[in-house]
Predict the 3D structure of the following.
Amino acid sequence: MPLYEYECTNCHHREEKLVRQSVSSENLQCPKCQQFTLSRLISVPAQVSSHSAAPLPLGGGCGVGPPCGAPWCQRKG
C-alpha cells in the first residue's frame, strides 16, 4: 500500500496514511476534528544521489590481502 500525505481542509491537520488505491479521500476521517474533509497533498519524490551512501571502512583499509582497487584502499601490493 502506498503512503500518502493528507491535510484536513477544516482544521489543517496533516498526517501520512497507508491507503489502498481503491479508497477515496472522501472516506477518510481527520483524527483531530473527526470531519471527512481530508485532501491528498502532492508529494515530492525522494532525491536520488549519484554518490554511494556506504561509509568508508574504518582505518582507511579493507582488511588483509592484496590491494582491492577501491579508492580508499591503502594496502600495498
Observations:
- Residues 62 and 68 are 8 Å apart (CA to CA).
